[in-house]
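During the second half of the funding period, the structural biology subgroup turned its attention to how the target accommodates small molecules. The most pressing case was zinc ion, which had performed well in the primary screen but for which no bound structure existed. We therefore specified the complex as follows and requested a full 3D prediction, including the ligand pose.
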Amino acid sequence: MRYGLISDIHGNLEALNAVLEELGRERIDRYLCIGDIVGYGANPKECIEAVKTIGPEIVIAGNHEWGVLDLLDPEYFNEYASAAVTWTKKILEKEELDYLMSFKLSGSIGDITLVHGSLDEPSRFKYIFDTNDAYAAMKLCKTRLCFVGHTHAPGIFYADEKRVARSPGLSVTLDSSKKYLINIGSIGQPRDGDPRASFAIYDTKTGGVEIRRVAYNIEQAQEKILRAGLPAELASRLAQGR
Ligand code: ZN
């Protein structure tokens, strides 16, 4: 089974299309989506439509879905995120909101668990930045693999009997004596200094997990953000991948 994993699309249709084109060449059997389809970018409707079209086996709710659905305290969001949530809420229709409402906070399939932020109180959307955060999530994980998003910075953590550590690089062949927590990064607003869209492929036969990057038309996504009247910062940061 080959899984295609996507997360933090954030209304960036140019980035999503580039990723789906790449995944289209990868003999993917099942798609999994880890949340934040909307927010920041100018094409939330089109991104919802594109995700619906590939029909992921599981779609997890992100904090931006919860923001748009009024399930989070507005104080949770910073100025730019809050402007994006308000703008997105205005343009989505009932059918789209109903779709977002159907997402769960966590889910599992086979040897995979999915959550947007952390398994440590999923509804609080905690960030996993370091090995301590990873430990808190991994001890709650009942499967050997947990995929997350939310920080927009891809990375691989593993745990053996002794410790939780960060694995170098962005691909790994799973070792049956270890558990893994893998952040697949963001499609629509990467923040690790690499502006290319980030996504992942998990092949259960080879035990290989690979985080991949693909370039997309950033200028076009930026232009749409500015034209929509969203904060200019949301456009400029795409070029820096910050
Ligand atoms: Zn996000």
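Two results from this model are relevant to the next phase. The CA atoms of residues 158 and 165 lie 6 Å apart. The longest strand covers residues 197-203.
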